[in-house]
Amino acid sequence: MLGTGRLLTLSKQVCSLPTASFHEHRVLGFLREHAARLGLPAAQDRWGNLHVRYRHRRRGPAWVLIAHADHPGFVITHVAGQRCRARWFGRVAPAYFRGGRVRVHPVGARSVGGRITRIRQSGTTARVETLWIDAAGALAPGDLGTWDLPAFRRVGNAIITRAADDLIGCALLAATLESLVRAEASAAVTVVYTRAEEAGLLGATALARAAIIPGDHPILSIETSRELPCARRGAGPVVRLGDKIAACDPGIQQLILAAAAELSARHPGFRVQRCLMDGGTCEASSFAAFGYRTAGLAIPLANYHNMGPRGVAAERIDLRDLRAALALLFALATRRRRPGEGERACDPARLVAALARAEAQLRASVSAAPVPWDEAR
Ligand SMILES: [Zn+2]
Fold first, then answer.
1. pTM of the model
2. Which of 56, 275, 298, 346 is most buried, by CB atoms within 10 Å?
3. How far is the CA of 165 from the centre of ligand 1 (A)?
4. Tell me: the pLDDT tens digits for 96-126?
5. HSE (CB half, 13 Å, CA atoms) of 341?
6. CB atoms closer than 10 angstroms to residue 309
7. What is the pLDDT of residues 33-43, one digit of tens each?
8. Distance between CA atoms of 56 and 38, rounded to whole angstroms?
9. DSSP secondary-structure letter at 247?
10. Ligand 1: distance of its center to the CA of 348 in Å?
11. Where are the alpha helices (DSSP H) in the chain?
12. Extents of the domains making up the chain
């Protein structure tokens, strides 16, 4: 498995790339090249989601690991001198935009700072849609913009980045693929880097509806997700019990927890958390809606969508959670046991043993039931 140094390098490379919904090209370009360097087949589907396949000495269903390549941001649409108009994508509360400092990233040129002078919200959703920016340099329509925040810094165990959601997820999946290749591990894994999640799970929904991925492949969504009392930074990756829409598949959860238990037996510091993260949706819900078996793994995040307690702020995750998530994904992918191979959320043998001890009593007491149901009453 990759060491911490390499994991950090990959994370820094991915998190430093500007991105927004419908404008994930630089992130996907990097990840496509990364797959090519590993010698793995990669292709984009009709909606631009990038699929990378690893299969070595394994038949049958593959684990499908998904992460999205966008993050709230904007694209310049009109330029008049140093006054620009831009289209904003992603859910960020309007109060954060007032006088906000932004940075625009023209391809092949130095980034340009700017300040938001005005915003316009959608009439129906009240979400911010349009920005007016005073820029400190020349820009062109199509240039991508982000908040003016450090792209990536590490301070002790803290990773502080402009866009952990979900570029850290993408980096984690790239690191998983690289770990499998280096170890020549027996595994079947398909990674999908999806598009336009922040615009409403669009890439994932298109892919799920198209049924391109065989229905017996288990889907695992990899996200960074807002901290909750049951999902604390530094306490390990979170095995999601579900999100706002859908519950996770108990059989897949069981396999993840079994892999986690094996890891913590070997590495006493290894921890995972379990949490129903019902504050939002994740891409697993798109697949669940179309009948796939899904589960989710999340890395707890502070300053969700750059909304800090005192204004715009870099997102923060804990390096230990990221490392543990990589170990867990690698362990899960290389385990012999795969979904559909006899795993059960709860062992029926234990339940039946309890029933066997008292079944006679249960049956003998039927006629003594105090209030018989009377349909005529
Ligand atoms: Zn998000």
1. 0.91
2. 298
3. 5
4. 999 999 999 999 999 999 999 999 999 888 8
5. 12
6. 7
7. 999 999 999 99
8. 13
9. B
10. 39
11. 4-15, 25-37, 164-183, 202-210, 250-266, 284-289, 319-334, 348-364
12. 4-69+153-334, 73-147
Supply 270's token pair.
């290894």
Whether 343 has a pLDDT exceeding 80, the answer reads: no
Residues 66 and 50: their CA atoms lie apart, in Å, by: 10
For the sheet with 238-242, list strands across it.
Answer: 42-44, 50-56, 187-194, 63-68, 219-226, 294-301, 238-242, 273-276
In the numeric block, which tokens belong to residue 185? 């591990």
Taking the CA of residue 272 as centre, how many other CA atoms within 13 Å lie in the half-sphere pointing to its CB?
27
- Average pLDDT for the chain: 92
Tally Cβ neighbours within 10 Å of residue 160.
20
Q: Which of 90, 59, 57 is nearest to 73 (CA)?
A: 90
Residue with tokens 């950090």: 8
- Distance, C-alpha 243 to centroid of its chain: 12
Give the pLDDT of residue 341.
56
Domain with residues 73-147, CATH architecture: Beta Barrel (2.40)
Q: How far is the CA of 123 from the centre of ligand 1 (A)?
A: 22
DSSP character at residue 306: G
Predicted confidence at residue 62, as pLDDT, reads 93
pLDDT for res 174: 98
Helix 250-266 crosses helix 319-334 at what angle (to 10 degrees)? 110
Question: Based on the number of CB atoms within 10 Å of its own CB, is 195 exposed (0-12), middle (13-18) or buried (19 or more)?
Answer: buried
8 Å CB contact between 192 and 66? yes
Beta-carbon count within 10 A of 179 CB:
23
The mean pLDDT value for 235-239 works out to 96
Query: How far apart are the CA of 305 and the centre of ligand 1, in A?
Result: 6
Residues with CB under 5 A from ligand 1 (ion): 165
Architecture of domain 4-69+153-334: 3-Layer(aba) Sandwich (3.40)
| Tokens coding 52 | 């990378």
**Distance between terminal CA atoms of the chain?**
68
Among 231, 70, 86, which Cα is nearest to 162's?
Answer: 70
Residue-level length of the chain: 377
